[in-house]
Amino acid sequence: MTSDSPKAAAGGGGPGRGVSVRRGRRLWRALILSAVTIVVLVAVFVGVFPRFANYSQAWSSIQRMPTVYLVALVAAAVVNIAVAAWPLQAALPGLRYGPAFVVGQTSFAFSNAVPAGGVIGLGVEYDMLGSYRFGTGAAASATAISTVFNVFATLVMPVVGVLALLISGEVRWHFLLIAVVGVCGVGIAVAAFAAILHSEGGARRVGRTADRLVNAPAQRLLHGRTVNLTGKVLDFRAAVVEVMKTRWPAVVGSTLIPQLTSWSILFLTQRGLEKGDHVSFGVTWPESLAAYSFAVIVSFIPVTTGGLGTVDAGLTGLLTAFGATGSQALAADLVWRAGTFVPQVLTGALMFLWWRVTAGHKKRMAAQRAGDNG
User: Fold this and answer.
1) How high does pLDDT run on average in the chain?
2) What mean pLDDT is predicted for residues 307-326?
3) N or C: which end of the chain has fewer CB within 10 A?
4) Do the domain assignments include residue 281?
């Protein structure tokens, strides 16, 4: 029997067409996100920053940074890259540091430098962990844990920043309000997570509560459709519960440390610029920490790849609000971005190439052994 019907001739209805449609949608999404990222970068760096900052003055300040601070920044950037492997290593028992480093850096590069790279990075991460002899279930569990706790760490940082301001004596009503709201928000999130891990019944209750909160507006926005968050919560619990019972301190600590090392690059930049210009920023370390903490929250808004432009606008605006001049804030942002984003993306690209070469070699060796045994 031949497949000469109009539907078959057109290629419709088969699984190949579904794959093609999904690929086409991903391509369009990547192209749109690329265009949006370029537009935002131009708007921020060409349209907004020149209105309150001077690029030539910022570059002159960067060039005057003392050598000792440049060396310290390089060391801090190396440490920032080195500790990035710890969250995945903590979430996946048996994963050695070397493979965790390769997988973590590659995932960062795809997620933060490739438009719509989150899905691609997830697939690559599964393939890489599979090449290191970890099954899909273990890979999914580790990815879920590291993703959720990265969100938690990012949400906790503003609370840490505000508390640092309060401890240093900068008591303002809006700081107190942010601290109270932040502590309550983080407390609710931690309590929900604890309930999910404690029992399946607790996970089901959290899921049902989330369904009630989300599905009421979702029905209006999605034309009557709803989402099944209870099922997703139960699936998440099944994936992570065994690991989190014994490894939660390592997971929590390893996720917070990269946040602090990233901020340390900003703080060293600030101090280096001050020493080079012999002019104080007027921004204390608690203010610097608070500015960084609130700026990285902007990365949750999926406007640009890796928060390019949006996080930079938030960081420069907050540093200026705390007392820095526009050119000082711009210089600090440029050096911080160069010390955090660029090295990790380049390292991730190199690690991906390294993995492709080594994984390909392992496959050839395995095929050769199989042939010899056959």
Assistant:
1) 82
2) 90
3) N
4) yes
